[in-house]
Design brief:
Keywords: Endonuclease, Hydrolase, Nuclease. It comes from Pseudoxanthobacter soli DSM 19599. This protein has two domains: about 15-145, Trna Endonuclease, Chain: A, domain 1, CATH 3.40.1350; about 155-335, 3-Layer(aba) Sandwich (Restriction Endonuclease). It contains twelve helices and ten strands. It has helices at about 15-35, 75-90, 110-120, 125-130, 135-145, 155-175, 180-195, 225-235, 255-260, 280-295, 305-315, 320-335; strands spanning about 40-45, 50-55, 60-65, 95-100, 120-125, 200-205, 215-220, 240-245, 270-275, 300-305. The longest helix has 22 residues, at about 15-35.
């Protein structure tokens, strides 16, 4: 049967649209560097690593990776991978700079955290638009491209996040203005706000069956999120325990020793988030390292400031999980022999 040439063309699939958008983003970033007076080479292989853009001007070489992920999904994972590739090249020779151009929505908190963690310059869409301002047509093309994937959190959601941040900041400044029960409630509200529905079934003031031990609250992990699935598999745990220490000063090793009693590999309960107003002292960190090294128990030490960062990163899909993943990774690689 003859093919009907009048039929409408098949629209590109979501995957094809994402690929087309990524290519377009790279083209626009390359054009921006050209407009800024750089000599641009695309898809350059340097020391075995393929770099999206190498821009050269005078004696300055800038290695650029372009991120264009729909709806900000997993942007921080992509930033980590690109930063590692850039750093491996830059460490080989001098006179090179690393830039990751994010042609997608990225919160200020995610930008600041990425630069501090990955040691590269992050050009978010605001910076790209600012640099493209003298080139009206190019700026318009950036605006058109980013509007396809832009997303803003609902106002009620951002209001709740702002309220939680203010409560945490007030608590940092004002020391013991909260009772232990009020601090537990605040911490639980933060984790519910940031990680619902992946973390669910929160239970306060939970006791072990013999009544001997009580932990502040516990929750279950819903499958389907890569970070939490990996945590559950890596540490053979069915739940996450939370201990909240409402102390005026940094917590000490004693708080780790008392918390460690609640964790048992045989009960599939091996992970605890130990939260405190100001975080741990050095002895507390060594005690948590000992629990990991000797028993395989993960006691992740978090402060009010860490909870604030989690809230700020909530608008970036995967941002809070990446923050915790980086904390756990840094903890693991720092373990003494």
């Amino acid at each position: 049967m003859p093919r009907d040439r009048s039929a409408s063309p098949v629209p590109p699939s979501p995957g094809q649209q994402a690929t087309m958008r990524a290519f377009r983003a790279e083209e626009l970033v390359a054009e921006l560097f050209q407009q800024l007076g750089y000599r641009v080479q695309r898809e350059e292989a340097i020391s075995g690593a393929r770099i999206d853009i190498v821009a050269t001007k005078d004696e300055r070489s800038v290695l650029v990776e372009v991120v264009s992920t729909s709806l900000s999904r997993n942007i921080l994972n992509k930033l980590r991978a690109d930063a590692a590739r850039l750093q491996s090249v830059i460490s080989i020779g001098d006179g090179k700079e690393a830039v990751i151009a994010v042609v997608a929505p990225l919160s200020p908190a995610a930008k600041e955290w990425s630069e501090s963690q990955f040691h590269v310059s992050v050009w978010d869409i605001d910076m790209l638009l600012s640099k493209a301002a003298p080139f009206a047509n190019l700026r318009k093309q950036f605006e058109d491209l980013t509007s396809l994937g832009s997303r803003r959190p609902a106002k009620a959601d951002t209001d709740l996040g702002g309220d939680l941040i203010r409560e945490l900041e007030d608590h940092i400044r004002e020391k013991s203005t909260r009772t232990p029960s009020q601090y537990e409630d605040l911490c639980q509200r933060v984790f519910t706000y940031v990680f619902d529905p992946t973390l669910y079934g929160f239970k306060r003031q939970a006791h072990t069956s013999d009544g001997a031990n009580r932990y502040d609250f516990i929750c279950r992990i819903r499958s389907g999120n890569q970070f939490w699935d990996n945590l559950r598999a890596d540490f053979r745990t069915k739940a996450v325990l939370f201990e909240c220490k409402n102390y005026d000063e940094k917590i000490t090793a004693d708080q780790v020793y008392s918390t460690e009693r609640y964790l048992f590999a045989g009960a599939l309960r091996t992970v605890c988030f130990l939260i405190s107003r100001l975080g741990p002292d050095d002895g507390c960190i060594r005690a948590a390292q000992g629990a990991m090294r000797e028993s395989g128990k993960l006691i992740l030490l978090l402060s009010n400031q860490d909870l604030i960062e989690l809230i700020k990163l909530k608008s970036d899909d995967g941002g809070p999980e990446d923050f915790l993943d980086e904390k756990i990774w840094n903890f693991v690689i720092s373990l003494p022999r």
